[in-house]
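P.,

For your records, the input lines for the assembly:
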Amino acid sequence: MTNLTDLTVAQIRDGFRAGDFSARDVAEAFNANVAAARALNAFIVETPEAALAAADRADKDRAAGTLKPLSGVPIGMKDLFCTQGVQTTAASHMLEGFRPTYESTVSQKLWDAGAGMLGKLNLDQFAMGSSNETSYFGNVISPWRRGNGDNAPLAPGGSSGGSSAAIAARLCPAATGTDTGGSIRQPAAFTGISGIKPTYGRCSRWGIIAFASSLDQAGPMARDVRDCAIMLEAMAGFDPKDSTSLDMAVPQWEAGLSSNLKGKKVGIPKEYRVDGLDADVARVWDDGIAWLKDAGAEIVEVSLPHSKYALPAYYIIAPAEASSNLARYDGVRYGLRDLPEGANLQDMYAATRAAGFGPEVKRRIIIGTYVLSAGFYDAYYTQAQKVRALIARDFARAFEACDVILAPTAPSAAFALGDKSADPLSMYLNDVFAVPASLAGLPAMSVPGGLTQGGLPLGLQIIGPAFDEQAVLNAGLAIEERAGFTARPEQWW
Amino acid sequence: MSEYRIQGATGEWEVVIGLEVHAQVTSNAKLFSGAATAFGAEPNTQVSLVDAAMPGMLPVPNRECIRQAVRTGLAINAQINKWSRFDRKNYFYADLPQGYQISQLYHPLVGEGSLTIEADEKAGIAQDKAIGIERIHVEQDAGKLMHDQHPTRSYVDLNRSGVALMEIVSRPDMRSPAEAGAYVRKLRAILRYVGSCDGNMEEGSMRADVNVSVRRPGDEFGTRTETKNVNSVRFVMQAIEYEARRQVEVLEDGGRIVQETRLFNPDSGTTRSMRSKEDAHDYRYFPDPDLLPLELDDAFIEACRASLPELPDAKRKRYVEGLGLSAYNAQVLTAEAETARWFEALLAEGARIQGKSEGDVAKASANWLLSELYGALNRLGKSLEDSPVSPERGAQLLALVADGTISGTIAKQVFEIMLESGDAPAAIVDARGLRQTTDTGAIEAAVNKVLADNADKVAQYKGGKEALFGFFVGQTMKAMQGKANPQAVNELLKKALG
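Structure tokens returned:
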């Protein structure tokens, strides 16, 4: 019998539909993998019963002939999505034990589509981080190792590190992620999987714990492009409960998949070819260019002249919004409350927030508070907003000359845990290729492009114009078909 | 011209006043959540997940609240900004679940407008005066802390959290407590006419932050203080009075005014310092990234305009010019939307049953409402809203007088009975036989009897004391139990007295 946990979402869906196996078989197989992989620390909460219950419903639905798009498919849920009755923490001590009475729009849509939940996936605390080292519930360990006897635990990327590790290790065939400045794409690249951040507004933010509202966007992570398309179709859609939600029909992305890029133009942004670009990254980028050419696309050079200001602008805007979004965690209504003997309200705030937030969260709250404060607002926040507008204009101009843009996802392969955690700036630099698309609200995905000399995965990033996820997915598919990426981490856990 | 001046030890001072009025928008739901907004509900029963700022919750603007604010803006002839935006005002407090208030600092919904306060000699307002209104913006209210529920803890009631407020910011155009009082009353009247706020200051649905400074007449503006959350017209006037005198004293003693926030104590009529500018919050305003800019189209604004009722100034003008009422009566009748509504119902019904124009019945209707009905309501401690007599019944009563069925004197009796019994005037007149008689035989008999019984007075009358005619009329009416047609009585008396 096939190993069910090696199947993709599409294969599970179709095999289940065809009667090759039951949904319960699938759920049990993944539950077993989850239980056996605690060394990876990918899950904060495991919900095997929920996965089985959904599987049993799917089996009944199959018997009744009422199958849904994701019937039989169990998935992982990033612990930033509020799930009714299931602890939701954003990987923070602040929300330890918090059980929402409500379900996020995106997770609800997935359950409505027939998917089941294997558990809540670990992440960087409040989605702030690029290595999954800021979680209150401990680091996620990448299933990948450098080999050659170097068993240093590697970062699975962040903030969706639990999602990326779990998919790469076959603990779930797909998972939700959220991407504020690369949090889907960079972990996907680090673990040799695919992930897409759709156009800002495609997926409702309702019920997703906010980091930076103008940037946060949910998206799927999975092992291939088709699975991303299937998942995104289930997750996307207008939501009147989110004012920034796009009131547009959800395209049939899976049906629209085509790797024939004849007549398409692929832009290569010259500013991304920075001095000292990692040789492996440069090589895989060149491979990507060749593959897309092979798929029929014309390659053109484009310019995104304000790219170098993207990272500083991002690290002003995102913390500014975060400093305000996280003000609600004050110990008054829910979550942690630290009330020292004889404390007044101010003391309670200080003690609660000191105990509840991790150092990276505090750092960003302080940065955000600073850039919004009187006397600094114009120099930082207003300026950053102008940069943001210029970056969006750069892309708009570039897309007059091309259909999609190809770039590296991250400047390097996965680094070892601890390598960058003492130096926030070098950590932030990991997002350098990812944040421009976030600031412009554009759809962008990462697909595996190859391996480093040392055998670690590298991702290629495709950025498309607003609303054109299809172009992004199709270019991703063209790369996927040619990259022949079959590498997978050897099981050591 | 009687300008308001404070007489200090060193000379005269002028007071400069600006008001920020917070008016709760009349709406069944809060500004950004679907929760209800009823006053006086059990604590924390009108709170949605959004109002409690649960993780992942998002605000969605309530169109009705926006509509009401636009209508209010149109009612003060203000610029409506087709593009406005919500900003976050960040500060920590236990009654503010989000840790920020969603407000509009940079791009308010409503721009420059104005309203007119009327001349009022008694109050020292020499002539009509336009008071500038700088802006109206829409924002969320906070919850309420309750400190009296537990010996060591404070409780939080979030029912009010997220309720829509309009902050109506005046220019510093007022120069006396009376002007400020008139401004608040006029603004409240407009809000009630428009129906965008019930104006109920006791329930907190309207409250004012009072900005006061003093200066030598003609000088530059002085440093101002802001007295927060004053919740009645009288208190607004008291707060200004106290604060202006306090500032004059400080200045004349060689001190300087500190820009600060103050609290008003309604029991003592005084203000005290709450916090100075130095320890004021840095609110870190920035555009709320959860909300898109608010964009209004012409059709929406025109629909708002079309939905506006006739406003007090226009109504007052029409009452004087179209209905022929005195300026004073028109002013009183239009000051409150409820009064005007009542009056117009009375007028419409009166015109209908008498088959006359509204202008023909306006004066009698206005006089009856303002003297008879108001007098009775005052006596009974009731308001128009709970008047025991409806406009329809009032009109019926006036029609009985107009068509000669009863006299004015009898009408007063009938009205008293209406107040007590709630019966229709015609039924009362019939049941009690109060119908006015024009039976000349009966009147003639009464006249003859009165003249016979008062032969001495008849002699005096004939001797030139013509003022006695009124006495004969009174006696005849009395003999007729008031039911005689006064005109017939007059005629028959004149005839009998030669």
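Two observations worth noting. Chain B is about 40% helix and 20% strand. Chain B touches chain A at residues 49, 52-61, 88, 90, 92-94, 97-100, 154, 156, 282, 284-286, 289-292 (CB under 8 Å).

Regards
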